[in-house]
């Protein structure tokens, strides 16, 4: 029997903001990773529209409104989605070849019931009521980044110039420059981008440097121009540009007599006297959650490592999830401690230990009791280190801490004072994963990019390496419910019992994907769950087959961190670049969506496998072995397909993918025994 799944999960996204559509008192912030964040500027409250609400992708490229201002039109990197003002999905339009010049659009422009879409190699336009019939497509040699209709002409913003056309075929260069967007304000068309701010009609350059956004406020006798740039917010008044505040601002607006700006990383804030007060969304940090703990029924996490080149806010935050809400601390660095927050643990007294990855200061270990103190307190061990690489609260009130290069600390936390012991182990470099097994044996997994890595254990006062080829880097380690150790690497997943490897899952001997195992956790029934970078979340079923959760494919996290955690209520928490996901494993149910008869299949050339499913007629079946190689492809001419075992050639684990005539995918697994 093959099972597909009904997934119950909560999603807490991260966002990098850009553009600034505003209607009435609502600001709509499109993001690259989190869908649409809606901000009520009077109530100072946030809400969201994302994939859970029907958005085709969390990568939102552009937002617009219909002429009646009742429909929100959203361009993602997959489709155009139409929503009501309250966030209910109405319909979606996709782009497909050869009717459209490309499958991903750059921009949209609405005029009446017509939609104009800019692509990397042309434009398409069609009626909302007739899509896809009547679609017109024109190929261009330039990338269309923005479209505007002004007076009796259309304008295109491109990397090299603004082009003008009346019929889309005779297109003329209007003004040279790299522009990203158009805005029409008080019957005046403005273009802005890398080449500055331009009044299109008069061809007047109002600002010569890069501009991200523009907003104009008209008084009785004057007007004020507000711009957001990659370096600041500026206001033009009485013939002078004045700097209001520094920072990378992708959106600006006046509301009543106040100025608001949208910072790329921090969100929306009120600007006053060269200062800004951000209205933080109820989100955790802008980097993958890299460690979790549970304290008094609350989930805590930190966001210390962001390897995608965007630093700042995501590096010094600590968040807790309590009573269904997120609370985030240290937005303004009130803790006054250095970056980056990399590890957290809680001791028997309820104190949170924070490990800092600094690289330049020895202030790297802090203790915080949120019930008693406003901010963490620095503790200095003997022979301090510039980076904490890993932490584990072990047996006997002892905290184990990995340090920069060869340092390992143990500290007894149960007394009135902390009692430290320092080890220097030349063979253990960057011990980022620390766990202990059912016998109390301590294990260390290293993640150096310059030295040989491996798995080590402590016996007495000595440290020893397990002689086994685990791979290049130890990405993750965790103890299962029986007290055994599991190790995730770039090579695969390994199970250790009493210091010996007893099981190995990799790309060649199982149906794991080739991505690194960057997270490991165990449900209350001891089911292994893993995160494979680039491939998503999988669990091991009762047939020893890895099953991927289709709704969570493509997730990634940073290497050598604790990206997965199961709390006392059997909720699985997953920290990724795409956000934090929480799965309630108590109600994660199997349902008979697609059925394979019989299962298992005895290997015999006369045996047949029957795969059934709804609406699969006209589709195509592909069967893959555990190594990912396609062993069979078949056209499906009915609502079921027969597979001869003799066509598969040999016993083993197999999975299949069906792509139906509407390009929808479904998958399943079966195995053949001798």
TrEMBL record:
PROSITE patterns to which the protein is assigned, alphabetical: DNA_POLYMERASE_B
InterPro entries per record: DNA-dir_DNA_pol_B_CS, Reg_prop, WD40/YVTN_repeat-like_dom_sf
GO MF entry, a single one: nucleotide binding
Protein name: T9SS type A sorting domain-containing protein
């Amino acid at each position: 029997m093959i099972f597909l799944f009904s997934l119950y999960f909560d999603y807490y996204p991260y966002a990098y903001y850009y553009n600034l559509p505003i209607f009435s008192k609502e600001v709509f912030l499109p993001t690259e990773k989190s869908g649409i964040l809606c901000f009520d500027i009077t109530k100072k409250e946030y809400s969201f529209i994302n994939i859970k609400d029907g958005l085709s992708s969390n990568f939102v490229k552009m937002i617009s409104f219909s002429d009646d201002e009742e429909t929100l039109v959203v361009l993602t990197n997959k489709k155009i989605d139409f929503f009501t003002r309250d966030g209910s999905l109405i319909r979606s339009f996709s782009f497909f070849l050869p009717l459209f010049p490309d499958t991903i659009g750059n921009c949209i422009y609405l005029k009446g019931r017509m939609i104009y879409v800019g692509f990397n190699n042309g434009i398409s336009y069609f009626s909302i009521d007739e899509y896809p019939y009547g679609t017109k497509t024109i190929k261009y040699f330039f990338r269309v980044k923005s479209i505007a209709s002004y007076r009796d002409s259309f304008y295109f913003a491109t990397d090299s110039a603004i082009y003008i056309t009346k019929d889309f075929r005779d297109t003329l260069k209007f003004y040279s420059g790299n522009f990203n967007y158009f805005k029409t304000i008080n019957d005046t068309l403005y273009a802005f981008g890398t080449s500055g701010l331009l009044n299109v009609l008069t061809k007047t350059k109002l600002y010569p440097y890069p501009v991200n956004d523009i907003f104009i406020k008209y008084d009785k006798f004057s007007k004020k121009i507000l711009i957001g740039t990659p370096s600041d917010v500026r206001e033009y008044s009485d013939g002078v540009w004045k700097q209001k505040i520094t920072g990378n601002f992708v959106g600006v607006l006046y509301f009543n007599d106040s100025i608001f700006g949208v910072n790329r990383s921090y969100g929306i804030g009120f600007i006053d006297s060269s200062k800004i007060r951000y209205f933080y969304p109820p989100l955790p940090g802008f980097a993958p959650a890299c460690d979790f703990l549970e304290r008094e029924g609350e989930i805590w996490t930190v966001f210390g490592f962001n390897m995608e080149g965007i630093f700042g806010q995501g590096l010094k935050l600590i968040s807790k999830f309590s009573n269904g809400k997120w609370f985030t601390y240290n937005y303004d660095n009130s803790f006054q401690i250095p970056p980056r927050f990399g590890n957290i643990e809680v001791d028997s007294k309820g104190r949170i230990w924070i490990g800092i990855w600094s690289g330049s200061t020895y202030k790297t270990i802090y203790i915080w009791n949120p019930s008693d103190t406003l901010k963490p307190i620095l503790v200095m061990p003997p022979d301090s280190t510039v980076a904490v690489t890993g932490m584990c609260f072990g047996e006997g009130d002892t905290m184990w801490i990995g340090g920069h290069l060869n340092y390992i600390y143990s500290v007894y936390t149960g007394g009135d004072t902390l009692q430290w012991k320092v080890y220097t182990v030349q063979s253990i470099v960057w011990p980022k994963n620390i766990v202990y097994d059912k016998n109390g044996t301590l294990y260390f997994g290293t993640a150096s990019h310059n030295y040989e890595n491996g798995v080590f254990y402590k016996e007495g006062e000595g440290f020893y390496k397990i002689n086994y080829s685990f791979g290049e880097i130890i990405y993750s380690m965790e103890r299962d419910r029986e007290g055994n150790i599991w190790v995730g690497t770039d090579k695969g997943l390994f199970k250790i019992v009493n210091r010996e490897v007893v099981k190995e899952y990799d790309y060649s001997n199982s149906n794991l994907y080739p991505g690194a195992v960057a997270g490991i956790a165990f449900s209350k029934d001891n089911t292994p769950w893993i995160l494979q970078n680039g491939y998503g979340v999988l669990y091991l079923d009762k047939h020893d087959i890895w099953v991927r959760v289709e709704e969570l494919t493509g997730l990634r996290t940073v290497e050598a961190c604790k990206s997965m955690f199961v709390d006392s209520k059997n909720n699985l928490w997953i920290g990724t670049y795409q956000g934090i996901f929480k799965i309630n494993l108590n109600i994660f149910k199997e349902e008979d969506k697609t059925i394979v008869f019989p299962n298992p299949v005895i290997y015999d050339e006369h045996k047949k496998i029957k795969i059934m499913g709804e609406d699969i007629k006209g589709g195509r079946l592909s069967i893959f072995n555990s190594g990912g190689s396609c062993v069979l492809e078949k056209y499906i001419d009915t609502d079921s397909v027969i597979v001869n075992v003799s066509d598969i050639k040999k016993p083993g684990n197999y999975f299949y993918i069906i792509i139906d005539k509407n390009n929808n995918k479904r998958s399943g697994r079966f195995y053949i025994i001798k």
